[in-house]
């Protein structure tokens, strides 16, 4: 792959140095450039990061054909046109197209066109405002930041310390999204978003999938009914969903052939591949945190402006997964916008607004985090669940509506099945959270996010008129149910 970065001297100074050129790092760099600051963006893998090549983009490229076929099968007149299985080879070619064949030159060129210096290599902090980059040709580039260093190195899949896991050659999300061979049998260990999305995708591509959840519910951070409906959808698609079980050891003699998973009840599951989707850990182990008094390999503790605590003079920031506030690409980019604007304001000597919902704080990381899982049915939520709101001390009422009551459901399926919930703060009569599960829910979520982040009063929501017939009429049904 050609190196598209600008050559720099052995020692160079910038206003801002960013470690990690995924979507979050690119956003920090872009916002800083918009304020007229010089920026060095350091990347040791592909410019575009995990999301572009092994996460959000390839997984959704794989999921859409599977769900499109499922959607067609739920509509009279369309299901008759579905005469065969999903073409796995065509799906992989589609995925490869959306990840540009894992060639990042287009993204690197785009950044260069913005005046951002992309420096390829492993960046390591060496004291205050100083980053040393080890390049592929064994040279070192010393970068000094006049205003800020921003850590956007992301996270990687965590693997449990189990007997036999090394010889099992377990998949993580990377293998699950860049493999082009369909395993006859795939075991997936996990209960979160990666687990349910990959179970949906690979079952649809032709694998016989067994999903093993340690908990008794899928998607445990959402309302309980979501996990129940997603589990039902997976089972209907043919996935063997087993809850309340744990893997205690694995066997794959010689690292080849089938892998055997031994469960805590001593039963066994045999598969051709096993995917672990059991959490993430920060990519901070080898970026020099110890040189500024921080623990290597740790999540970075930040304030609401994403400045790293425990570092003198406030020059170190962390955005995205590494600060553990919300491990979601869109939330990391939101933080990045705040950081870039804050660095720009401080560099120009302008006032800084750190009030709640101010221009330089990431308030929505606490109160209005949206998330979507593109399983079948789709699961979407924003803000607090009923339980979370109650534990936080709010006096709330949860209001539920079955989505089959909404006329616009006919656009998605005959016999549509889905459910929506809003969590209303009874003392202020605005929404603390909203949850949707069912076909087509992903595009419904932003309206809920506006309502939650904006704390739109229930009285005002009555004047937000949904088009007929659309699934957005669920808002009218929810308000009617709340008022009785």
TrEMBL record:
<keyword id="KW-0274">FAD</keyword>
<keyword id="KW-0285">Flavoprotein</keyword>
<dbReference type="Pfam" id="PF07992">
    <property type="entry name" value="Pyr_redox_2"/>
</dbReference>
<dbReference type="InterPro" id="IPR016156">
    <property type="entry name" value="FAD/NAD-linked_Rdtase_dimer_sf"/>
</dbReference>
<protein>
    <submittedName>
        <fullName>NAD(P)/FAD-dependent oxidoreductase</fullName>
    </submittedName>
</protein>
<dbReference type="InterPro" id="IPR001100">
    <property type="entry name" value="Pyr_nuc-diS_OxRdtase"/>
</dbReference>
<dbReference type="Pfam" id="PF02852">
    <property type="entry name" value="Pyr_redox_dim"/>
</dbReference>
<keyword id="KW-0520">NAD</keyword>
<dbReference type="InterPro" id="IPR050151">
    <property type="entry name" value="Class-I_Pyr_Nuc-Dis_Oxidored"/>
</dbReference>
<dbReference type="InterPro" id="IPR036188">
    <property type="entry name" value="FAD/NAD-bd_sf"/>
</dbReference>
<comment type="similarity">
    <text>Belongs to the class-I pyridine nucleotide-disulfide oxidoreductase family.</text>
</comment>
<feature type="domain" description="FAD/NAD(P)-binding">
    <location>
        <begin position="14"/>
        <end position="330"/>
    </location>
</feature>
<dbReference type="InterPro" id="IPR023753">
    <property type="entry name" value="FAD/NAD-binding_dom"/>
</dbReference>
<dbReference type="InterPro" id="IPR004099">
    <property type="entry name" value="Pyr_nucl-diS_OxRdtase_dimer"/>
</dbReference>
<feature type="domain" description="Pyridine nucleotide-disulphide oxidoreductase dimerisation">
    <location>
        <begin position="369"/>
        <end position="475"/>
    </location>
</feature>
